[in-house]
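We emphasize that the prediction below concerns an isolated chain of 709 residues; any contacts that depend on oligomerization or on bound cofactors are therefore not represented. The input was used exactly as deposited, without trimming of termini.
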Amino acid sequence: MATVKTNACIILLTFLCPYVVRSFPGSQPQPPRSTTSIPTSPFAPTKPTCAPLPPHESIFKSDLSLTSKLPGNFDLDTWASLFASLDEDEAVDYWIEDWEGVIPEDLHGTFLTVGPSKYERGGVPIKCWLEGDGAMTAISFDKGRVHVKARFIETKAYLEEKVEDRFLYRGQFGTMKTGRHGWSAFKDSFFKIRLPPLNAFDMKFKNPSNTKPLYWGGRLLSTFETALPHELDTQTLETKGEFDFGGLMRPGEAITSADPVLDAILQKKSGHAFTAHPRIDKATKRLLGWSWKTLLPKHFGVPDPRLWRSAKGKKNRTESRGAGLEVTFYEWDEAFDLPFPPVTIRVSDCPSPPHDWVVTPNYYVWMQSAFRLNLLPCVLGLKGPGECMVPVKEEEARAVVHLVPRPGGRHAGKPPVAIEMEPYFMTHWSHAFDVEGDGEEGNKLVGFAAGWDKSLFSPANDDGHMFGHTYRGAPDFSRLPIIRYYRLDVDLEQKRASFVAVPPLAKTFLDFPKVHPRFEAEGAPRHVWAMACNDRGVSSPPQGYVHLDLGTGLVESWHAPSSAAALAAARQASSSSLPSMFVSPPLSLSAVDMKWDDTRGELSVEDRTKHIVVGEGVLAPRASCEPGKGGEQEELDSYWMGVEFNALTGRRSLCIFNAADIAAGPLCKLHLQHSLPWGIHSEWAPGLLVAVPAEREQTGNVIRNKDGQ
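Result of the prediction step, given as a C-alpha cell string:
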C-alpha cells in the first residue's frame, strides 16, 4: 500500500499551459484607447547606436475597415484544422524560394519553434493537443538567404510508439495507454473504464519534449515541463537523448522525501524535472534554470516541508501542512559550468511547479497558485494529472509570490521571501526589475506578466477541473477565460504584493509578452511585444501582435489580414485540397462561410480574417546593431517575427516586422513549404545556422506586390 501511495504522489507532476482551460462569461464592449503613462522606470533616452532600419515600405498594410483593430473574429473549425499531424516520413529540408517583400540581410541566426506535431496513433487521437509528440522547426537566416529544416524530436517514447503504432505511455492530460486493437481508456462513452487495469497505478508519464527551444553554449535543447530536456544536433536536428546537465540531474520520477533513508529507497526510481522556461541573462552571460521534485508529505518522512536551504546550509522551519515542492535554482556559464552553488528551497502546499518565472539581478521570482488535486481518478487510470487540477474556491483562493535571493546579488544568502496576495494565475512573464533603496530587503520589486485574475476561481468557471477543454483537439476558446497583461508590485519591507491590469491593454486578450533579450533579466525596458487575440475583452484565437510603450502607454497593433489573391485561390480550391481537421473529415467551406462579394471579387474583410491566426512572436536584434549600449534605441533596433497560419489556403508564412513599427505590417513574408502545426513556443538563436550549406547560387531578393506578382 505504501508503494501505491508513493507512486500516487507522482501525479503532482502537472504540465501547466494556458490554452486549455475553462469557460468565461460573455463579452464586454471595447474600451477607449488610453494614453495614460504607466509608472515604471524606463531608460533615459540615448543616441541611436545603430543605423536606422532600411526604408522598406510594408506591402502588407492592413485594409481592415472594422471598428476594432483586433476584432477577434474567428471560425472555430478552421482554427481546429491547424492541429493536424506532421508527416513522419516527410523530409523537411529546403531553401525558401517563395516570399513577398524584402528579406533583411542583417538577420543572422535561426528562428526556432517547437510544438506538438503528432496527434494520434493507430487511428486513436490524443485527448489534449498539449500531449502531442514534439517537432522542431529551424528557419535559418544568412545574408538574405533563408533555409528551413524540421524534424520530430525522437524521444524514447516517440520511437517505441512509432514502431507499435499505439500509445504505450500515459499523457499529462488524459491520453491513456491503448490496447493492441486501438481500445482506449478515455473513450467519451459509458464504457470509458473498460480497460482500467491497463493504466491503473501506472504513474510513468510520457515526455513528448514539445514545449520550448533553447540554444545555449553551442547546445540545442527542447524542453518539457515534467521531465528533462532533450538535446538535438545543431546541424541535423537529430535527437541525441535526454540532457542531464553534466550529471547534475537524472531522468525518473521527480519525487523526494527530504529524508536520507527514504530517499535511498527511492533512489532507483526518483529523478528530476526541469523547467520548460529557462532564462538567459545577457548581462552576466548565464543560463538560468531550475529543477523540481514533488516533496512527499510529512507522513512519508518529511519533518518540515516548508523550509529553505541556501548554499551556507541555513534552515528556517515552519509547520507542515502537506505535500509540497522542492525547487533547485542553477546558473550556468557558456561552458555549462556553475559559477555559484545551486540554491534549493522547499515549499509546502504546492501541488504543482510554477509554469514560468522571471529573474532580476537580485531575485528569482515565481508565483504559487491556488489549486487542489483530486488524485483518485488519476491513480485508477481514468484521468491524467492535468484533469485532476481543481482551483480552490474563490473565497479561499490565495496566491503566493516567492522571491529567492540570487547568488551574487545584493541579498545573496538571505532567506527567501514569500508574500500572500489576491488569487492570480500567471501564464508568462515578460520581465521584472528591482527598485532599490535604503531598506534592508531592497524595498520593492516590479514585474510584468500575462495571466488570469480571481475570475479564474469564480463559481461561474467551476466545471470540475482545470485543464482539458478542447474542440476537436484544439484549444476551445468558447471556454477559455481571457488572459490580460498585469503589473505586479511587491513591497518587501511591508511584505505586501498586488497586481493591476496594465491600463492600455485592460481589455486586450494577449499572451507570450516579450522584451528585448538584452533586458530580460536586467534593467527596466520600455517596450513590450506580445501575441494578441483581440481588444474586445472576449476569447478568440491569436490573430495579431501588439507593441506597448510602457513609458507613454501608447499601443500599436497589427491584425493578420490576407491578400485578395490568396482568398480568390482558396475559393477556387476544392474541399479535398484544404487542410484536414483534427481527426476529422477534410474542411469544407460553404458559400455562406465564404461570404464572397461578387462586386469586389473577394471575401468580405471581416470574414477573410476569421481563418487566419498567428503563433508566438520573437524579437531578433539586428546583427548590425552594436549590443550593450542600453537605452530605448537598442530595444527598437530589432525585428519582430512570427508565423501566420492561413487555414483557408493551408499556407504558413513567417512574417518579419520592423519592431519599432509593427502596425505598418510585415517587411516580408516567407512562405513555408511544409504544414507546420500551431505550436507552443518560439525563440531567436543569434548566430546559429542549422544545416545551411556553405555554397549556394545567390539569386537575390525578390520584391513582389500583394498579389505575389
